[in-house]
Specification:
With 710 residues, the protein is α/β, with parallel strands linked by helices. It is built from 25 helices and 28 strands. Bound molecules: GDP-alpha-D-glucose. GDP-alpha-D-glucose binds next to strand 11, helix 12 and helix 13.
Length: 710
Amino acid sequence: MLWIISNRLPFSVQLQEDNIVLKPSVGGLATGLHAVHDSQPFQWVGWPGIARDKIKDSDWDSLHDVLAKKAAIPVALTSQDIERYYHGYANSTLWPLSHYFLEKTKQYEDTWQAYVDVNKKFFDVLCRHIQPNDTVWVHDYQLMLLPALLRQTFPQLKIGYFHHIPFPSFELFRTLTHKKELLEGLLGADLIGFHTYDYVRHFMSSVMRILQLDRHLFTLPYQQRTVTVDAFPMGIDVQHFSSTKITPKKSIYKMILSIDRLDYSKGIPERLLGYEHFLQHHPEFHGNVNLKLMIAPSREVMDSYDQLKSLIEQKVAEINGKYGSQSWMPIWYLYQSFPQEDLIPLYQSADVMLVTPLRDGMNLVAKEYLASRHDGKGVLVLSETAGASHELSEALRINPFDVEAIGNAIAEALTMTESEKKRRHHAMMQRIQRTNVHYWVVNFLERLSHQRIDDSSIATLTFRPLKEIIPAWKKARKPLFIFDYDGTLLPIQSRPDDAQPTQKVYELLKRLSGTPSSSVAIVSGRDGKQLKQWFGHRPLFLAGNHGRTIRDPQGHEEKFGSPLPWKKDVLRILQRYMDEMPGSLIEEKTGGIAFHYRLCEPDMVAIRKGDILHTLETLKSRTTMQIMLGHKVIEIKDPSVDKGLAVRRIVEKVQPDFVLIAGDDETDELMFSALPNAHTIHVGQGKSHATYHVDSVEDLSTFLSSLFLK
Ligand code: GDG
């Protein structure tokens, strides 16, 4: 079964006397999904548009029944939920920030808490209905936490998420106090869609910087899954808009049309200034042009919207007062919303359509205008900061903050030749016809259904359950535990020097090496000296520099490997890169060199890393050195030692009857493959040859401690 989840159901519910009246809302999503309903039935879950405390229990029950007939399930939200979650966190924090209005972005803990609670309310409703193998498609910024909530309880669920508004650049997104939770919420999905590649890029950049994940083209390996992120520009039902016949207009005026919801992101005051500029510089159009300014009421209870309305009305009055005459009004202003059907004749009579938002996720009105004006005789003036401008490059594209550019574009549109209008219209129509709303829905759902099949790294399918280690452990008389250090015994720190062992690590190691017959080894890329400083007083095997030195529990140390003639040259090269890459640092060890770039800007790393590797490879061809990639680190080391050889040497000495190895990065894979009979555990994300897996250092520690529980 397919489930569509959105803040609002595609109906507005009204109580008229004792009757429940459903009015279908004809948004792009509702019409688009209508098209797939026949081939793929689905259920819709969302808020029905009426607060739970404003409706009697018996009416709520009847509403349930009425909606059930429409394959819809209501989520009960109280007036307080709507105030704090909808008007609060969704529309006073996420909405302004995503549209680049930092000064309007409010961040309060109580609205955030309401956002968390309402996402849970949606989750609770879904839990009562969905099956583990269903497909769920979550819509928009009001429900960014829902994918992760679903994933925790239903690991096999196919989860898609589509973000209808812009995803802001990292510089803005980073200012959110709960940015981490929001990103982690979205990453519960298998497929995350945006309208444009710019939003994909912004999202990826935030994920890489805030969650320190690596991207591979359009995918992110995350918690043993692969999350795909891509652009799916939303289309319209072209057929619906273009099938209405155009009736020849009677008006003597050239008509300029503007249709928006009341919102500061729509750039209405700037548009009016642009129109004023046009009137000022083109007196020849006075008396025969008319701007029809239609604004649909929206979020009126919010102060900033009320102020915007006053500002717009003041400007309209000013322009009409200044340029109008007894027989001519430059602007006709309507503050009302209309059913979509009524918009079509308006679109058809407009010679120029002004769509100049300061920011807009997509803007479907621009596409609807082109489809309705199918005679090709209209001109679209479109903001370059609307998502739609990526596809509609033949529109007259303007910077919506540039009042003069808007004025000039109006003049250009009104004087454009008919053949030029048709040429532009034809090119845009071809595109919007192909990528219509049916294509958008089908394409997204198809990608989602293939996603989990392609994903061969699903932990639950490839790793064995940890409990399978227990029988062998119970029989063990001479166990050996082998651990990598960074990322395995302790979470990775931003700077290598910050990774001091904690009391908890010492206690765990003490417990594991507590009986005379058990041994513990730490096998690390870190310098042997550093390991001795931290663990020298404990009876452990310490293999430093990938096994160049191995110290036994009695304190005897053996050295392996060859001289490092290349060290000076590599240092010189890396020092040059370090100067060019703020945040990078070089760790010089007796057995090699590590170049850390965890604190560097990810885009810079993406460009420079290939260059560094290429330079090192060139040097490698002339000498004997090994280049290895760890977690945000390039290691250059002696090829005659590695962690695989080190663990074999330790096993030879101990002769254990049970070996458990845990490690987190690529260098640890050598330990896993060196001892095929060992119980190998991979810590964290990404693929591995280990047999078992834990999500985190914390989980490994918990598992190891559990071995000693009676
Ligand atoms: C979000 C993003 C993105 C019907 N009556 C009126 C009216 N309609 C219909 C239009 C059109 C839709 O509403 C408005 O289109 P938008 O593109 O602005 O969509 P929203 O749902 O408001 O916004 C936006 C969209 O999601 C889809 O992903 O494009 O960027 O913010 O279908 O026919 N529209 C207006 N007045 C009416 O009286 N303005």
